[in-house]
């Protein structure tokens, strides 16, 4: 190799080294989407996760929060993560079930007896089994379950004081078989609609009502056209943070651990923030929001729910039954 060629070779090698070092040092961007407003529960959870992820990785991972269906709708996001076109997304658990039916064990009506029971399930053995099964069977990673709150029922037709008052109400439900069956068992007429279609359907009277996590009723200003608030506590609502396998494979082993720790720590911190919010928001809806609130006796609703639980245990098979049994055992 002559002197000119040697100098050229060394210069090229040095440039390659600089490029490789720059690529290694560059931030990895994680675009995390959700379908609700920026100040919703999703956005608030996301901000804590963003701060912790960037802190734990010393700025190597730059989390960008994308609200309001900017990068996908909630109904399409899971498939997009399987395809690797979306990095991360907050998805309400019941909207995961069409892609991974075992998630419905957490959607069953009245399956959780109280907050302690719920925490024992999600933070314990059952929660870990679900994360591992989900990732193995769909490739999508569940980073954290996040805080859980009750879904509250609302409608524009009449107050609900007994289950008989549900008769014939056209109720928007997510495209989830358990939730459809539950409202049928309650005597209502469920209308499956994507979340993106729901606000318009409620405003135009296409449906009479629906149910959401309590804060969403306020965040989405549903109280402006849904005068009746009904405290049934029939479903627990939580929105896990998911990440695509494509994104997770971009990370080193250490970074993967840091991102998972950030998600779990963010969920725990946010859970403390929202622990007392349900009652506060219900009171706000019933006063400043102008909604008329009723609290029916739940006996008939719980009995109807038992039939739904038995129906899906029979339909879904032994793996589903085993997880339901583990959830019930966690209450003891």
Write structural notes for this entry:
- By secondary structure, the chain is of the alpha/beta class.
- The chain folds into two domains: about 25-150 and about 240-275, D-Maltodextrin-Binding Protein, domain 2, CATH 3.40.190.170; about 150-235 and about 280-330, Bacterial extracellular solute-binding protein, family 7 (D-Maltodextrin-Binding Protein, domain 2), CATH 3.40.190.
- It contains 13 helices and twelve strands.
- It has a five-stranded mixed beta sheet with strand order 2-1-3-11-4, sandwiched between helices. Strands 5, 8, 9, 10 and 12 form a five-stranded mixed beta sheet that branches.
- Strand 1 (about 30-35), helix 2 and strand 2 form a beta-alpha-beta unit.
- Helix 2 packs antiparallel against helix 10 (about 255-275) and helix 12 packs across helix 13.
- The radius of gyration is 23 Å and the shape is globular.
The CATH superfamily of the largest domain is identified as Bacterial extracellular solute-binding protein, family 7
| Order of neighbouring strands in the sheet with most strands | 2-1-3-11-4
Mean pLDDT: 91
Range of helix content: 40-55%
Strand content: 15-25%
Order of helices and strands: HEHEHEHHEEEHEHEHEEEHHHEHH
Low-confidence stretches: 2-26
Shape label: globular
Rg, Cα atoms, Å: 23 Å
The chain-level structural class is alpha/beta
- What is the CA–CA distance across the termini? 78 Å
In DSSP terms (H or I, runs of 4 or more residues), the helix count works out at: 13
The CATH top-level class label of the largest domain: Alpha Beta
The CATH architecture of the largest domain can be named as: 3-Layer(aba) Sandwich
What is the count of distinct domains? 2
CATH fold group of the largest domain: D-Maltodextrin-Binding Protein, domain 2
Task: Let me know the number of strands.
Answer: 12
- Major sheet, described briefly? 5 strands, mixed
């Amino acid at each position: 190799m002559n002197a000119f060629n040697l100098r050229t070779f060394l210069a090229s090698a040095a440039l390659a080294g600089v490029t490789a070092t720059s690529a290694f040092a560059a931030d990895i961007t994680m675009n995390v989407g959700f379908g609700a407003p920026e100040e919703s529960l999703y956005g608030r959870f996301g901000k804590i996760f963003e701060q912790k992820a960037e802190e734990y990785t010393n700025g190597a991972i730059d989390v960008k929060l994308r609200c309001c269906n900017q990068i996908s709708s909630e109904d399409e996001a899971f498939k997009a993560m399987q395809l690797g076109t979306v990095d991360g997304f907050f998805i309400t658990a019941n909207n995961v079930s069409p892609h991974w039916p075992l998630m419905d064990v957490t959607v069953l009506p009245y399956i959780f007896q109280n907050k302690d029971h719920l925490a024992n399930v999600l933070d314990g053995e059952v929660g870990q089994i679900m994360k591992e099964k989900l990732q193995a069977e769909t490739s999508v990673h569940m980073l954290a379950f996040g805080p859980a709150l009750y879904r509250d029922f609302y409608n524009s037709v009449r107050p609900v004081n007994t289950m008989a008052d549900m008769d014939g109400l056209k109720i928007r439900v997510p495209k989830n078989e358990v939730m459809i069956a539950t409202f049928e068992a309650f005597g209502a007429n469920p209308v499956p609609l994507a979340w993106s279609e729901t606000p318009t359907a409620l405003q135009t009277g296409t449906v009479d009502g629906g149910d959401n996590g309590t804060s969403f009723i306020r965040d989405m200003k549903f109280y402006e056209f849904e005068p009746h608030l009904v405290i049934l506590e029939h479903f627990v609502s939580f929105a896990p943070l998911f990440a695509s396998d494509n994104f997770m494979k971009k990370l080193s082993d250490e970074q993967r651990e840091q991102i998972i720790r950030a998600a779990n720590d963010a969920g725990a911190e946010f859970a403390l923030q929202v622990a007392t919010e349900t009652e506060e928001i219900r009171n706000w809806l019933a006063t400043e929001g102008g909604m008329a609130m009723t609290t029916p006796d739940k006996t008939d609703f719980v009995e109807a729910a038992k039939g739904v639980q038995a129906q899906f245990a029979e339909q879904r098979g032994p793996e589903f039954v085993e997880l339901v049994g583990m959830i019930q055992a966690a209450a003891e």
